[in-house]
Amino acid sequence: MNDLESRRAAREARVTAASRTGRHTTEEMAEAAMRRYFAEKAFQERVEQERRQHQKTV
């Protein structure tokens, strides 16, 4: 997942979380949860990769 997809997923997750009024189907909620999960995974991987690159230069 690239940065643009991560930002889009995070934005969708915020919108979904902010509008939890029972209007969303179970499938929509599951998709939002999966998007949040994968956005978080992508972020963690990017942070870890940056940490490794920093360690190589030190």
TrEMBL record:
Residues 1-28 are annotated as: Disordered. Residues 1-14 have a biased composition (Basic and acidic residues). This is Antitoxin VbhA domain-containing protein. It comes from Amycolatopsis thermalba. The lineage of its organism: Bacteria, Bacillati, Actinomycetota, Actinomycetes, Pseudonocardiales.
